[in-house]
Write a structure and sequence with these properties.
193 residues; mainly beta; Jelly Rolls; 13 strands; 38% strand; dTDP-4-dehydrorhamnose 3,5-epimerase activity
């Protein structure tokens, strides 16, 4: 398993070894020893999630109120996507920065999203399946979002696609509006988790 630190403090990319043969492939996208060596702690699993998206679907920028918070380990089980991490943590040394990783069902590259950061992706192929290993149970009352098309963030969405967004994401506040409304988590609270 290869690891790489991303531009957002505490976020990592993981690239597992893929074992192909005449039957197909075997891969282990999440490996606790590699995760612990990179991040410095274990990843508690409370729930796993899957979503399937058509080409051009943008999901995010989603994050969880912190506390209670939620950390995520995400990989692409089918298809292809651009996955983005955005540092939303007030007081973080990388506050406001983002990084992007191309994920697909060839490399099975994965990303770790620490507590308090935002997550978004765009499906680059029909029937793209993203899989999540998360540290807390889904609670709609704790879920927040920022508009993924916020011009100030200027996320690297491909210009040649027609974007499909949920009403929740379309009407979500901008990054600056979320900060002004007191929605963003404190870096110290995120580190405490």
């Amino acid at each position: 398993m290869q690891t790489r630190e991303l531009a957002v403090e505490g976020a990592f990319e993981f690239t597992p070894t893929v074992y192909p043969d005449s039957r197909g492939v075997f891969v282990s996208p999440f490996q606790e020893p590699a995760f612990e060596a990179a991040v410095g702690r274990k990843h508690t699993v409370a729930q796993t999630n899957h979503n399937r998206s058509a080409k051009g679907v943008v999901r995010g920028i989603h994050f969880t109120k912190t506390p209670p918070g939620q950390a995520k380990y995400v990989y692409c089980a089918r298809g292809k996507a651009l996955d983005v991490v955005v540092d939303l943590r007030l007081g973080s040394p990388t506050f406001g920065r983002w990084d992007v990783v191309e994920m697909d069902d060839v490399s099975f590259r994965a990303m770790y999203f620490p507590f308090g950061v935002g997550h978004a992706f765009i499906a680059l192929e029909d029937n793209t399946v993203m899989s999540y290993v998360v540290t807390s149970f889904y609670n709609p009352a704790h879920e927040l979002s920022i508009n993924p098309l916020d011009a100030d963030l200027a996320l690297p969405w491909p210009k040649d696609l027609d974007y499909v967004l949920s009403e929740r994401d379309t009407t979500a506040p901008s990054f600056k509006e979320a900060e002004a409304q007191g929605l963003l988590p404190q870096y110290a609270d995120c580190l405490a988790l």
